[in-house]
Structure formats: C-alpha cells, structure tokens
Design goal:
The chain is an alpha+beta fold. Helix content is 19%, strand content 31%. The chain is globular, with a radius of gyration of 12 Å.
C-alpha cells in the first residue's frame, strides 16, 4: 500500500516500496506495482514525475522534496521534521 503524506492541507502519495513521492495517488500506485514486479529497479518514466521521496523509519519520519511543497519557490532538497508531517499507509 502507498503512503499518504499530509503537510497542512496538502496531501502527497509515496510508493510503499521505494519511497518516491508523487502528487497523485495514481502515480504512486503505478510506481509501487512496477517496484513489486521489478525488484531493485525504478521506472525512469515514473521517476520523472516524482517530487521527492520519504524516509518512513519509525524513529524519524522525513520527507525530502525536490521543490518547495507550498510552491512558493524552487529549492534544493530539504527536510520537514516529524512534528509538521503526518505519514501513514493508505487503506
């Protein structure tokens, strides 16, 4: 199952296998299906649409974005701490 990442009012979706982050659940599901059928590989076509990735480890949930999630300006990868992000598995 994909991860749902909530940051304020915004929702993003991450592949449950590789952790790539997408703006739509459809892309995250496609990525997860590819990862399950091709272990150790990622689809280049799907990865192009990725906006970052997650690290859902139990101690430190982290989200790394390629751009500012609020779309205010482009930035290099940055981290949002666990207190301001909610990561959970989709049902």
């Amino acid at each position: 199952m994909v991860y749902v990442v909530e940051i304020g009012d915004l929702k993003y979706y991450a592949c449950g296998v590789c952790g790539l982050l997408y703006e739509t659940q459809e892309l995250a599901v496609k990525c997860e299906e590819f990862c399950k059928s091709h272990p150790g590989m990622c689809s280049v076509e799907l990865a192009k649409h990725s906006i970052g990735y997650i690290d859902p480890s139990k101690e430190h949930q982290k989200v790394f974005f390629k751009i500012d999630p609020m779309r205010k300006c482009s930035r290099r990868v940055f981290t949002i701490c666990k207190t301001s992000v909610n990561i959970y598995r989709a049902c």
